[in-house]
## 1
Amino acid sequence: MKTRTYGIGLYAPAGFVIEPEAIARAIARLEAAGHRVIVDPTVTTRWERFSAPDTERLAAVMRMAEDPRVELAIAVRGGYGWSRLLDRLDFASIAAANKRWLGHSDFTAFQLAAFAATRLVTFAGPLAAYDFGAETPSAFTLDHCWGLLSGTEYAVELALEGPAELTAEGTLWGGNLSMLAHLIGTPHLPRIESGILFVEDIGEHPYRIERMLYQLHYAGILRSQRALLLGAFNGYTPSPNDNGYDLAAMVEQCRRAFDVPVFTGLPFGHCRDKLTLPVGGRCALTVRGGTARLTLSGY
C-alpha cells in the first residue's frame, strides 16, 4: 500500500525544543519521504520552560488549524504547557478545520479536551523531535504511524498479558496517565462509557501510578470501561523502601482491586517502539491465549 503524503505542520505547544538537531533530522526525513513541512516559529524559540508565552503558543495551535497548507499537525515534544491553554482554545474552529493532530505525553490534555468539546478524533503517536528526529528512528513506530494514517481501518496483532480471553469493542481513549488524572472533575475530561482505555507514563514510581489509577477507580471511570491497556511506565528509580513492591506488584494489586480487565504490554508511551492510536476512534479488541488483535476504525 502506498503511503500518502501530507502537508505537515511542526509546532511547539508546550515545552521548548531541547535538541534543535533532532528537528533538523525530522524535517529532512519527512521531506525525503515526500511530505511538505511547514515549521511554526515556536519551534525555534524559548520562554522560561516553554517554547513561548501562553498567548503565542495558543496562536501557534490556531495557525496549524488555519493554515491551508497544513493537513497533519505534529507536536515537536511534550513537557508541560497544554493545561494553560485549554480554557482559551477555540475547539469548534479547530474541529471545523478538519486537520489531523498527532503527538503524545502532555499532548494528551489537548486530545481529551478536544474530544470532550467536539468529539474530534486525534492521534496518540510519535512526536517530531523524539521519534521522527531520532538519530535512528524506529521502523516499528513509523510503519505503524503511516500505516494507520493511510487508511480508514487498521489492525495490529500483539502480545498482551492479562485475562486469557476477551472480546470487547468501544471508544478508544486515554494517553498519559498524569494528564488524564489531572483532568478529572473538569469539563475537559470526556465521559466515555464502555470504552477501551489505554494509559502510559514516565518518571512516575509504581506507587504513584497505582494512586492515579485508584483515582480513576474512585471516580467511577474504570468500572465503566471494557478494558484497561497499560503501556510503557519507565524512567523511575526504585526506592529502598519498596521491599519487593515493583511495577508487577502494582499491576497485580490493580487486577485484584479494579472491576475491569487489565492488560499489560501495549507498545505505547515514552518508548522507542510505539503504535499510533486514534483517540476517540473505535477499537475492537480480541484476546485469545495471550495474543491480542486491535482493529482500529472511526477516524
## 2
Amino acid sequence: MTRNVAIAEFFYCIIALIFLLVGIKALRDKSHPKRISTTAFWFILAFTFSVGPYLPHWITGVCVLAIAALTAANRVVQSASDVPEAEVTRKHADTLGYKVFIPALCLAIVAVLAATFLPFGANNAIGISAAVALIVAYLITKAPARSAVVDGTRLMDNVGPVGILPQLLAALGALFTAAGVGTVIAKGVSAIIPDGSRLIAVAVYCIGMALFTIIMGNGFAAFSVITVGIGIPFLIMQGANPVVVGALGLTAGYCGTLLTPMAANFNIMPAALLETMDKYVIIKSQARVAFVMLLVHIILMYILAF
C-alpha cells in the first residue's frame, strides 16, 4: 500500500466512524419508528467504507443493493437529536458574526494549496483541508471537544442517505461510459442533427449535457457520456475547438445541476441544513437562472468554438 493510499484509507475510516456513530444514535433511540432498519443502513455503510478494499466485489455489491433497498422502502429515518434552543443558537450567531465563515474559507483555500504543493493527491487534500478547517473552527468558537462528534453525527443524520448520492452517481457515470451509452446516444442524435448544422449541434450538446446531468445528478458523469456521444462526433470532428467545447460543455451540465434533486449535495443537503418547509425550494429559486445560463452557453459555444 502506497503512502497516498494509506492516507486515503485513514480518511475513509474517519467517514466510516461517523456513519457508525449515526447508526448507534439511531439504535439508542427507543422511540424511533424504524430503529432497526435505520441502524442497519448506517452500519452497512460504515462497513463498506472501513473494509471495502479488502472485500470481494460481490459482497460490496450486496451491501450497495441493501442500502438502496432500505432507502427505496423509506426505512431510513432521522433519529431524535438534542437540538440547541433557538435562543442559544441566536446568541452564538450574534457572538461569532461573519467569523463563522472562516472555517469554510479555510476548507477551500487549504484544499487548493494542499492539492497544488503537497504530494498527497487531490482527494487527500480534501481530507487535510477538512482537518485544518476543524481546528480553525475550534479556535474560533472555543467549543467543547465533543462538539465535532455530536454535531457532526447530528448533521449526517439530518442529511440522511442523500449524502452518499454524489459518490453513487459518479460510479454510475463510469458504468454508463463503459457500457457504451455514448455510442447509443450518438446513433440516436444522428437522426436529429442535419448535416452541417452547427447551431443545432451546439444546442443539442448543451441541452443534452444539462438533461443528462439532471438524470445523473453529476456533471462529470454526464460529461464523459454526452461528449463521447455528441460532443466529439458532431462538434469536435466538425472543426470545433475542443477546449471551448469541453469547458462550456461541462458548465452547461452544471445548469442541469441547478435543476435536479439528484445533485443532493447542492440542492437537497442545504435545504435539510436550513430545515426548510419545502425541500425543493432551492431548486425552484435556481430554475430561472439555470435556463438563462443554458441559453448563454449555447450562444457562447456557437460563437467561440468555431
